[in-house]
Design goal:
heterodimer, A: alpha+beta, four-stranded antiparallel β-sheet, 42% helix, 27% strand, B: mainly alpha, two-stranded antiparallel sheet, 7% strand, elongated
Chain lengths: 99, 214
């Protein structure tokens, strides 16, 4: 399933606004088969939230935001990178050096 | 519906699924607060009625009203989005969640949000019924008879280890009535609840404790 990074500009948003927006995002997600909200990072100083979603298509991510009445200022398909992907290689290198 | 907090099911998911069905059936052009209200009542209804304490609502009647008043979706129009009043209701809903201290959205949160959101059909219905959210909260409180949390149970050996005494001491205390214990049904095995175990620990008068003593 493709992964998308979504930028949502939220000038002046409070915690209450964020909670309600999260509810609406969840309430509308069931309509889009296979769509999953993976995680989000809210930069309160920059007044922006970056969300990571799994979805079939970019258009669905945009339509989901329209339906849920949440901003959607940029959508980019991205690739997940994390330490768990590299852990075996790192462990192997450490073992080789120790030997 | 007999208990508004009847289960740990994903209420939001269920209500939203009903809303999608109703939106389709009524050819709704907007996901209004009236529509989510109808979906909630439909989800919670038994035999066509929503009943909770003093509230009794004919859900088919609500559906008729929503069908007559909701903006209709024209041909080729995109999927309906949440309306402004629905967005405001979502804020009230999350306010109810915060107020309750229960993190998971439940049926009572929805009901109180509809009563307090002061929007559309919910405002009209609860206004006509003359019922306040406070009355519903009180009703829900009196109904919420939750069993006390299960206590950890100790065997005499566990209890001895916990109290740092010999197991024979624990058994002697049980025999003398100083420590309360229970038997597992139909068995000889003894068990002591955590609170009974605590009861043998008496607070110490600081003046009675000598510095060099134990």
């Amino acid at each position: 399933m493709p992964l998308f990074m979504i930028r949502r500009d939220l000038p002046g948003a409070t915690q209450e606004d964020m909670d309600a927006a999260a509810y609406r995002a969840m309430a509308c997600i069931y309509h889009f088969e296979g769509m999953r909200w993976i995680t989000s990072y809210w930069d309160r100083d920059a007044e922006v939230i970056h969300c990571v979603y799994e979805a079939e298509k970019r258009e669905e991510v945009i339509d989901h935001a329209r339906r849920a009445r949440i901003p959607c200022d940029d959508v980019r398909e991205v690739q997940h990178v994390g330490p768990e992907l590299y852990a075996p290689a790192v462990e192997e290198a450490v073992a080789t050096n120790a030997g | 519906m007999n208990d508004v907090r009847r289960s740990d099911d994903d209420v939001m998911r269920a209500v939203v699924a009903v809303m999608d069905v109703e939106a389709e059936r009524l050819n709704a052009g907007s996901l209004t607060v009236d529509l989510i209200f109808l979906a909630y009542l439909r989800h919670m209804s038994r035999f066509g009625f929503f009943s909770f304490g003093p509230i009794n609502i004919d859900v088919d009647m609500i559906e008729d009203i929503v069908d007559r008043t909701i903006p209709k979706r024209g041909p080729g129009e995109p999927l309906p989005a949440l309306s402004d009043d629905h967005v405001r209701m979502s804020q009230q809903l999350m306010e109810e969640v915060r107020r309750s201290g229960r993190r998971r959205i439940d049926e009572l949160h929805y009901l109180l949000a509809f009563m307090r959101c002061n929007e559309g059909l919910p405002k009209r219905v609860f206004g006509e019924l003359g019922i306040t959210p406070e009355q519903i909260e009180e009703y829900a409180r009196t109904r919420a008879i939750e069993p006390p949390p299960l206590e950890k149970l100790y065997s005499p050996e566990d209890a001895a280890a916990y109290l740092n005494v010999h197991v024979q001491t624990v058994r002697a205390w049980i025999r003398s009535g100083r420590l309360r214990a229970r038997r597992l049904a139909g068995q000889r095995a003894l068990r002591i609840t955590a609170s009974d175990l605590q009861s043998v620990l008496e607070p110490v008068d600081p003046e009675s404790v000598q510095l060099a003593g134990s």
